[in-house]
Amino acid sequence: MKRIQINGLASILVVAIFLSSCAGLDQMKKLESQVKYTVTPSPLELLGNQVAVGIKVTYPPKFFNKKAIVQATPYIKYEKGSKDLTSIKVQGESVEANDKVIKNAEGGSIDYADKFEYNNDMMKAELWVKADAWITKKETKKIALTPIKIADGIIVTPKLVKIDPKPLFAADKYVKVIPDSYSASLLYVINRYDIRPTELKKDEIKQLNEYIKKTADPNSRLQLKTIEISSYASPDGPMPLNTKLSGNRGGAADSYLKKELKKAKITEAEKAELWKVMNTPEDWDGFKALMEKSTIKDKDLVLRVLSMYSDPDVREKEIKHMSATFVEIAKEILPQLRRSKYTVSSEKQDFNDQEIVAFFDSKPDTLSLEQLLYGANLVQDLNKKLAFYMQATKKDPNCWRAKNNVAYILILQGKPADAKPYLDAAKAIKDNDMVKNNLGCVALMTGDLKTAEDLFTSAMGAGDAVSYNLGIINIINGKYDAAIKYFGATQEFNSALAKLLNKQNDLALGILKGLKDPDAKASYLTAVANARADNKDGVFASLRLAVGKDAAWKAYAQKDLEFYKYFNDETFKSIVQ
Predict the structure, then answer these.
(1) pLDDT at residue 19 greater than cutoff 50
(2) Are residue 216 and residue 268 in the same domain, yes or no?
(3) Would residue 561 count as lying in a domain?
(4) What does the pLDDT look like over 134-166, one tens digit per residue?
(5) Which residues contact 535 (CB under 8 A, 6 or more apart)?
């Protein structure tokens, strides 16, 4: 009987302890609505591809049982599921553990921080917290505190970034006007200036006359620019005689060519404008040039004389002292110096723009590599540009510029996978910053951000386009300050987005308002900027423009927490529904 009394007492004590424990948990359950949650930021914000969560939890006095443990778990709740974040334990002051302590009499607070990977299903989401409470060593006797929503969704405005990297094309080297010239010489007998018939029958003189005729032909691509007549005497006679000889030879050469120009129907006025006559009494420069090319035995000695003396009389005297050598000079060198030299300069007009396009359509093989690379700039249609560059790769399979430019167009057409083989081939021919930038564009467009960033960073020498592309990378990575620096003075959508994300709303609006022919996304971002500026009329006006250009923005706006305060506004509803 005594034993029964003891057991009965023990049972009563156990029940009492259990009821006391439950009573403590019931008190927590009763006061749970007084627990305060402060979320930072609220709503949550996407940064890079992660969302950071900061929560301050404040427990009221008398809430926390001295022997209780609470395990709280924040979680993201969205249309297609939920995602638990890292759990945290909090304990009463009598619990022998190492978790954060909350005193019963005073209450207290804890700070929580975590982050999670974002996916597109989470755009319309809520941040909730759930918790279990139990008395120490009674974990099997848990009670669940009521789950509570503590914040609305996620701001995902960084996702509006345009993946529109700037590729680079290699310039052509096409020259529309090509300098051209033709030269021919008449040779004279010693101490004579009359033109011998045999000289006029030489091929070079005949070709000179034909060349002049071509420049006068209106159907020719040659345009005459200047005619120079330079007449000389050899440096082996007295200066007065040589001066007279060179002048007379110039006059004879002048008279002959004027007759030929008359035959070519070139007017006197044109002749006066084009004509230039020069006479050189003693052609020491010509003499030196011919000596250097000659095989005369003592040519080095003769050249030394020329370098030692500048006086023509002394030169002539010293050379004539080398009697045997002078005989050879008189035979091989001096006759070539008694001459009149014609130099006809012209400009050759290559195909004009219309001709290049016409030839491409009818006879593309007629066009050179440079004409093809240039011709692509004459057409606006991307497919036609691509055709020019493809033809250029056929014209010269080893031209890196042609292959790079094919890829350039394919990138603009949104075909990075098609562009890559051409860029790989271009890189194999010439690995340079332009090709690296374009490979970076391909990597960015296909989602390989690390490779894209590495390529752009190594291609900085290619200019502003590379900086723009790095700006895109930095928006995606959540580095808005860096993105703004890379964009520099660029006044484009992405530079406006970077400023908006960096809390420079007025600057963002300024860029957006300055855009020419803004697309639907630009109008939508303008609505977001106006929402941040609390400009209700601006929000609605910009949203109307956006959905008018692309109705898909209606559904997007319905989920976008940038417009949270307008979700119940009838005007907003009328625009997006």
Answers:
(1) no
(2) yes
(3) no
(4) 998 766 688 999 999 999 999 999 999 999 999
(5) none
Residues 6 or more apart from 37 whose CB is under 8 A from it? 55, 56, 57, 58, 129, 148, 150, 151
- Note whether residue 329 is domain-resident: yes
Range of the domain at 394: 354-516
Q: Which of 334, 349, 364 is the last residue of a domain?
A: 349
Can you give the pLDDT at residue 269?
A: 59
The answer to the question of residue 548 being in a domain is no
Distance of CA 59 to the CA centre of its chain: 55
323 and 382 co-located in one domain: no
209 shares its domain with 131: no
Task: Report the distance separating Cα 475 and Cα 470, nearest Å.
Answer: 9
Contact 237, 191 (CB under 8 A): yes
Instruction: Choose between 324 and 46: higher pLDDT.
Output: 46
Q: What is the count of structural domains for the chain?
A: 3
**Contact present, 206 and 198 (Cβ < 8 Å):** no
Residue 144, classified by CB atoms within 10 Å of its CB into exposed (0-12), middle (13-18) or buried (19+), is exposed
Please tell me whether residues 24 and 112 are part of one structural domain.
yes
Instruction: Please state the φ and ψ torsions of residue 278, each to the nearest 5 degrees.
Output: -135, 140
Asked if 389 and 409 count as a contact pair (C-beta separation under 8 A), the reply is yes
User: Cα separation of 517 and 194, whole Å?
Assistant: 76
User: For 283, phi and psi rounded to 5 degrees?
Assistant: -90, 75
As a whole number, the mean pLDDT across the chain is: 92
**Dihedrals phi, psi of 125, to nearest 5 degrees:** -140, 170
Q: How far apart are CA 233 and CA 189, in angstroms?
A: 10
CA distance 20 to 30: 15
pLDDT for the residue numbered 273: 77
pLDDT of residue 11: 34
Residues 146 and 25 in one domain: yes
What's the CA gap between 243 and 312, in Å, rounded?
13
What's 47's domain CATH number?
Answer: 2.60.40.10
Do both 337 and 368 map to the same domain?
no
349 pLDDT higher than 70 = yes
With 0.85 as the threshold, say if the pTM is over it.
Answer: no
